Amino acid sequence: MQQAGRVSDKTAFFYVGELVEYDDTKEMFTNPKDKRTQNYITGRFS
Amino acid sequence: MSKLDNELKLLKEEVVNMWTLVHSQLVKGLSALLNFDKDLAREVVMIEKRVNGAELKIDRDCENIFAIYSPVAVDLRLLLAVLKINTNLERIGDIADGIAKLIIDTDNCFKPELLESTKIVEMYHEAIQIVEEILAAFEKEDTALARGIFKRDEFLDEINRTANELITNYLKNVPQDIDQALNILSIIRRLERVGDQSENIAEEIIFYLEAKVIKHTSRKER
Q1: Which residues of chain B from 35 to 74 reach within 8 Å of chain A, CB to CB?
Q2: Res B201 pLDDT > 90
Q3: Mean pLDDT across chain A, nearest whole number?
């Protein structure tokens, strides 16, 4: 997860085949818009 | 509950405990002012040491959480907010400590007419309520409550603005009370800063919950 944050400018989060969120990496890792993205990047599910 | 969740829960509890200490300093400070109770004022000074200890512990815990868990998103914002709330709370503790020391250094009981004409007691009550409300906003994660602080702080600002004139008028009639009047003016200035620190805390709560930076924005934009 941290590697993805370090090397990319943009990040997309897919969940069971669905594109949940796509944004600038900085935005995604500080203020994700979707609750599922937030729960995933904060390690609440994997 | 994950380990990080547990750490954050404990951290929040530590912040609430520190908040309770600072609140007790303000409440005891008011009582010491009204009853001219120097022992109670000394207690406020003693509590300050515990507040300072709590500040260091919270700083250290935040550092450890950053190092071990590399938090992101809402967890990262919580930690950043807690670091700043911690500093602001400690400053409110310093202010309460400063007020208590002024009471200890005052020779005679504060004159009721001086307290009444300067509205310092109302101001003190309002400052305590602001600290209580901002704590409730943090505990309930309620940004509407946090935004309410900006309006309430205006009352403290208003009393602070009129304080010079009120004290001057009072001293025209009772010039021998100059020492007491200057101490009251100093307490008013400090209470106004309690409002400012509380506003900073409100801004941090909003940042944590809404990811919005409202520092240095106008009241309308908030």
Answers
A1: 70-74
A2: yes
A3: 92
